[in-house]
Amino acid sequence: MTGTPDRQRSAGARPESLADLLGGRRGAVDATLPPLAFGLGWVLGGLGGGVLAAVATGAAVAAWRWRRGDRPRSVLIGLLAVCLAALIAVRTGRASDFFLLQIASNAASALAWAVSVVVRWPLLGVVVGLALGQRGRWRRDPALLRAYGRASWVWTATYVLRMAVFVPLWLDRQVVALAVTRAALTWPLIAAALALSWVVIRRSLPPGHPGLRHPVGASDADRGPVAGPEK
Predict the structure, then answer these.
(1) So where does this one cross the membrane (predicted)?
(2) Containing domain of residue 147, as a range?
(3) 153-196: per-residue pLDDT in tens?
């Protein structure tokens, strides 16, 4: 745990991880259910069966998320994504195109994460900063900026990996394989990325750094320009 002390540590509590800060993998587990339902429905009833199963499962997941208190926008976006994926498959007549939206989303995400590091606004820092209510204060800490940049490459790699798996299966119209790998490369991969990026951050921060909640120099915004990460 070198280099990431937090105030909680002084109290003897377990230090926070990225999974603690970002809510773990609960949403990712929910996201695997409609694709799996589509694959099963397609096996049992063709394209129509797959679409009905996916939309019904998406609606059930949305209702469950609503009841447990998730934000309405988040619930609605999840359901609309399932409906749009189903609509694409119906319009093209190819069951494998149900996963086309996911493929496009991963391609866009890989590009966005990579560009964010290059322009020194690493998305992992943006996400964690919002979760902690820091906005852009973390960028005033060169060590945090560098750590978030390195860890953001971990997340970029997850999207590239998904593309490397999904695209050949989509081109070969392997519907069941797409459904299974969609689940396999969702919450397990997210859990692995959370753990690995946390390790990268810990090892990137210098000894004695106060941790993610306490950016060094965050109150010194008026002293000069923001320092960039070390090369």
Answers:
(1) 40-62, 74-90, 110-132, 153-171, 183-201
(2) 7-223
(3) 999 999 999 999 999 999 999 999 999 999 999 888 988 999 99
| DSSP run (H or E) holding 110 | helix 100-118
- Look at residue 113 in the predicted model and tell me its pLDDT: 97
pLDDT digits (tens, 9 = 90+) for 21-52: 565 455 566 778 999 999 999 999 999 999 99
Residue 2 lies in a domain: no
Please answer whether residues 10 and 215 qualify as being in contact, where contact means their C-beta atoms are separated by less than 8 angstroms: no
C-alpha distances out from residue 202 to 21, 44, 50, 136, 193, Å: 15, 48, 44, 20, 14
Q: Which of 162, 137, 154, 160 is nearest to 220 (CA)?
A: 137
The tokens for 117 are 């590091």
Domain count across the chain? 1
Question: What's the pLDDT score for residue 6?
Answer: 41
What is the per-residue DSSP string for 171-195? HTT-HHHHHHHHHHTSHHHHHHHHH
- Residue 47 in contact with residue 89, Cβ under 8 Å? yes
